[in-house]
Amino acid sequence: MSSDFEGYEQDFAVLTAEITSKIARVPRLPPDEKKQMVANVEKQLEEAKELLEQMDLEVREIPPQSRGMYSNRMRSYKQEMGKLETDFKRSRIAYSDEVRNELLGDDGNSSENQRAHLLDNTERLERSSRRLEAGYQIAVETEQIGQEMLENLSHDREKIHRARERLRETDANLGKSSRILTGMLRRFVLF
Questions:
Q1: The pTM of the whole model exceeds 0.70
Q2: Burial degree of 26 (CB within 10 A; 0-12, 13-18, 19+)
Q3: pLDDT at 127 over 60
Q4: I want to staple 26 with a disulfide (CB 3.0 to 4.6 A). Which of 11, 43, 91, 173 is the partner?
């Protein structure tokens, strides 16, 4: 199971490296190649999301005792995916702004500050969303761990209860045995 996960990890690493290099090249390409590159990156981003889903399914099949390490890796990969999507959006915004500026004959200087401000706000919102999602994920994992602990405590309680009952039975049997032996000893002494 973990070998499947590691295979998916390798595929994800290769794919994200390709996506990163293509995203960096998008703004510098001629318009025809940009369209093709944007479509190609969108397709690879979908493939990366599918890989993440497969990895997530693999993590869910791992026993709870060793799931934590893989869950941490998944969080890291999801954050990396989010960063790639943000970078791609920025690249596309720059690309669409170039096209708009070409069509309108606008040099874009007047809206540069607004665009930077919007990008900052968008990035801040995305970071906050990621933090909330991470907090929610931690709460869910904590709840699962709590449930497992309660189940373990319940099983332990049952074991202790059964052991106590056996001890009582053993004590009662020892009392009976002691009385029988005492009676036998008295009869033996009388003869």
A1: no
A2: buried
A3: yes
A4: 91
